[in-house]
Design a protein that fits this description.
heterotrimer, A: 481 residues, mainly alpha, two-stranded antiparallel sheet, 21 helices, C: 9 helices, 69% helix
Amino acid sequence: MQPIAESIGIAAPELVLATGAMVLLMLGVFRGNRSLHGLTYGGVIIYAIAGFALLGDAQSELAFDGLYIADDFSAYLKVLIFAAAAICSIIALPYLVRARSDKFEYPVLIMLGALGMSMMVSANDLLSLYIGLELQSLAAYVLAAFHRNEASSSEAGLKYFVLGALASGILLYGVSLVYGFTGTTDFRLLQVAVTETPAVGTVIGLVFILAGLAFKVSAVPFHMWTPDVYQGAPTPVAAFFASAPKAAAMGLLVRVCMDAFGGMMSEWQQIIAFMAIASMVLGAVGAIGQRSIKRLLAYSSINNIGFALIGLAAASELGISGVLFYMAIYLPMTIGAFLVVLSLRGADGRPLDTMNSLKGLSKTRPGLAIALLIFMFSLAGIPPLFGFWPKFAVFNAAIDAEMYVLAVIGVVTSVVGAFYYLRIIKLAYFDEPEGTVLPQESRVNGALLAGIAVFCSPLGLFLMGPITVAAARAARAMLTF
Amino acid sequence: MVEAFQNSFLGPYVGYVAAYVILILAIVLPLLIGVAYAVYADRKIWAAAQMRRGPNVVGPWGLLQSFADGLKVFLKETIIPAGANKGVFLLAPIIMFTVALLGWAVIPFSAEMVLADINVGILYIFAVSSLGVYGIIMSGWASNSKYPFLGGLRSAAQMVSYEVSIGFIIITVVLWASSFNLNDIVLSQKGTILGIINMHMFNPLLFPMFIMFFISALAETNRPPFDLPEAEAELVAGYQTEYSSMAFALFWLGEYAAILLMCALMSVLFLGGWLPPFDWAPLYVIPGAIWLILKICFLFFLFAWVFATVPRFRYDQLMRLGWKVFLPLSLFWVVVVSGYLMFFTDKFA
Amino acid sequence: MLAGIILLSGTAVILSRNPVHSVLWLILAFFNAAGLFLMLGAEFLAMILVIVYVGAVAVLFLFVVMMLDIDFAKLREGFVSYLPFGLILAGVLAAELIVAAMAAVVVGSPGEPVAPVIAAAADVSNTEALGALIYTKYAYVFQASGMVLLTAMIGAIVLTHRQRSGVKRQNIGQQVARRPEDAVIITKPGVGQGVEL
């Protein structure tokens, strides 16, 4: 029995978040909805403290009798998650105030979601995996329906909830099968128990677990909810969904596959490779006919998850560091793209979401158009921009693992995908404006947008060194422990 | 007794069943007679409170009144409304009645006189008493009529609300006894106060819980001032409006059996169950069952007294009391009691 | 037998025409599940199952279902058109399971559990055993489940709580604090004079 105090020290970031969320909640209850701004920035401070708690000794450590693990891998992903959560709670402020949904619970829910995600990436047991996942999902369901007066938002929440509950059920079923056939839920012990010729129940269990996790990263064939939920949910919430949970679920997928079921590599490799191909193809093709920008971004996120899964399918250190690198670049790109959508408001002040509203953006809002240009080129993976390098990294890993078909399909679909990204650029730069677009109302959002755009632009390449080093270290920590 | 039957000519299996059937009847028959007299006592106490005489015609001092009433409903025709959902309509009173009797299985009448001395006795009673709501909600729905429906809904909300605080109150007592077993809970009260009084009720930390339990028990059994499911001024007779004859009688019996069960539970939890009130050897000569019955009678008198004196609550006030007063208070008290036991006694050492 | 009843009532839940009957069947299924726990010697879990699921969750469920006004003829309209697809899906799943089961029969080894299942000590009641495990080994997951429930609670409040304006609320504190001096004026008006308020 490990002493509790030692475990608490190791799990400090989670503890900070949990306490922080409860403190914010109490403050919110007593101060009412007018405290929204204060709570949001207070939340940012809490994320920062939790981030500091991540620093310290870099060895991999187990806590709570092996339920929890802290290593470079989880620390890397937690940094991404905390940053994304902080940004997503800040950018929502003007939107929430305008939509009269400025309830103080918003930053609290985001923080609880972030807590769930950080528990996910630190999970070292199927039990803590499930609880983390469920915490994250519950917060997400509520956030999707946060605009409860709008039918589309309620619909998004309900759809997400019903399908998410189904996915959780499948995952749990898988967990119980694995437990039944191996007698343990601990990843360390599973590693020993799972061998090259596993029991049938374990295989079925693994398939169910992967299906449940694939739902969370919205990989094909478990992607159906994504476009509807992104479109219906409030835009900042959609930005949140497209960023932090993806990183967390991806990290979890990597840990479950490489760590717990490392012995069954040949089994899951086929599944992951199939999901990667299907996601890339469907994401690229499905996006073409879309009229709503948010739906388009949803398909784009499916597509991107496909690319990231290539790295996992390669199942090598190079592949894992590719996945981590991909997540680090994908998160700012997608948040940036959603931030652009968030900044689009028609003449009546209501948010715009149709592709046509982008027409002639370069004339009405030149600054925003440049940011859009950077994000779209970056998402398309055009070389000088940052978005090119992670794709390069995962393709490299695939070729290294001699998965040529996967790499070729990846390149082809990224060309197909470039088509719709370029269509957006065309609308913004070569068409005449239709209607007006109001200027940015929040300086903070403007500054964040500019910052993220600079990050994704070629200037961001200066950061590439540190990120790749960190990703490589994280991947090594994950594989060696 | 069970062994004796098993060793007799009946053989192990038949003997086992026969022994338990006899034991069950030994509890249920006196209970039903008790229920009949509880109704009579109830009416006499209200009458006294209102300076009337109450039932005094059938038998000496009206003692046979309840049996006359029972005979009357037994002979009447059972009417099932045309729009009713027949199966559920008939099932509802049966559930109500059965569930009210089920809980008695674990009530200890003395150290040995208990039908099923199970480890989780208190949870069993709690589970069974929470089932009573089904009889009401099903009857309300199956009657297919608006007053019963409203009564059923009210009752469902009310009983679920007060179960929460009852649960926490039970936890405080369980903490004190460190057991879910009802006999252990009774024994933990032996000489608990100053070494002579056998009652948790006089423990200053548990006394507020006793009061809250009493009030929650009133709500849980739909007794006035919480009899909103059958509030006659608004809902005719609430969930029982469409019932007649035997079905109606089953509701009536079930309701009183549930009240007596709650009184018994309260005696076990707070009044020392089958222990005499004082830890003094001569008092132990009187059998435990008598002490328990006396305590039940005392609590039942309180129930009737409240009925006769307190006006009915408004529904929102009822909910407010349950969720905003009792729930936080009982939750807080669980913390207080466990804190006390942790720091000032060696119970958790 | 209990498992059989669970299966039967589970089938009845989805087959019965009336949603209220479905819920009642569901309750029967819960009861039998509790019975299974009892037979496994887990009496604490059995009681908690009855208290929580039958005593509270199903009551609320029944409560909601009774108030819903659902036209079931309408719900059934799409049934026939989805039937072939559903049957195909069910067939595929069944085939998969059969293949898997066959493979299991052929391969034979169900895999040796690595961690032996801990046998409960005979002198410890299973309530105690459960508590000892939940509060020590699994404290982390236990606390985390608390956070999950907190989130659910916040969610329910966010999505349903509305601040209505123009409602006169009863303030019991104020009512109780009111003294006769604030509310009653005692005057003795002369004959023919009115009372000034």
